[in-house]
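From the thread on structure requests for the teaching lab: each student submitted one protein with a one-line request. Submission from student K.M.:

"Model Radical S-adenosyl methionine domain-containing protein 1, mitochondrial from Neolecta irregularis, tokens only."
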Amino acid sequence: MRCRYTIIHALPSDLFSLAVLTFSRLSSSFLGGTPSLARSSLFSGIFEVLSRHGCQVSEETEVTMEANPSSYSSSCIISSLGFTRLSMGVQSFDDEILRLSNRDHNAKDALKILGTISSGQQLRHGFSFDLMFGFPNQTLASWKNDLDKALPFAQIGRHISLYELTLEPGTPLHRSVKNGLLQLPNEDLKEEMYDYAVDRMRQIGIYRYEVSNFGRTSRNNFATWQGVDYIGIGPGAHSRIKGTKGGKTRIIRIPEPGRWINMVESQGHGTAKSTTISREEYMEELIVSGLRTVPGVSRQTFQECTDRCLDNTLVLNRVQQLCQDGFLEMFENCDGLEDLDIPSYYNYIKGGVRATDKGLMV
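Reply posted by the TA:
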């Protein structure tokens, strides 16, 4: 327990070492590991520290708690602590898939928790949960069954994320696939699973706003994709802040809590690595991340973030070829974005470039 309170005491130094207290505070997220396992006093202490040092939470601020079905307590309790949004790591409603992915909950647990959250909605910005596809032995029929169970909750929570399985080297699942004990679905089947999910959700008014995300836009995620600066404090946190000559600085904190605390106490910060991103690298990053979103890269936002013209930055002959091949499209206004619940809708009135449905699949 001493470690938890020491983390609170170390946060002000870690925060001030970034020297960034004037950014637009649209969102906060408590992620990594299972923060919902921590005592409530930890979070009230963190909010108090942030408030005391200039980081105010307004009615518009999205404050997200990450949780798993096995560690969740109550949306009422989470709301009373200052959280406005919950992100639940469900992954599947298929017990065999949950076993393969070494999750410590089962389908019954996930359904019960989502039912509890849905019936006692206390969170201003709703809740989200994730599903994964592309597991060994997973069929289109089993994926459809997962979606049938998920969509009623997604309509209430107003957000759902879909991720394709990525095998992590060294894990039991990776070894089983590598040794031929399990077989992954082929690319055609995975594409069919994803396309079915997109169409099925569109039918009930849940629209994709990014490759993996559907429904009410997460301000935290969307701001990151749109190039907004962000700061992360605490063990393992990441930041991207204003650098020199139009570039950015990327900062990674020490991941181990004990080492991070010692570093903050001795040096005033917990930085493990700091990398300079040039203006050109930042512009490329903006374009790549923006093309993951359905709205795409806005001319206006790109100009504001980089002081450069998007059209002059793009390799136009290459873009034109990708447009002809059906992967990209240039657009001149925000028509067609009306169904998307995005916080910066009017940033697209001058148009930009975006991926087509075909391009989003690449």
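TA comment: DSSP finds 15 helices and 13 strands in the chain. The chain has a mean pLDDT of 86.
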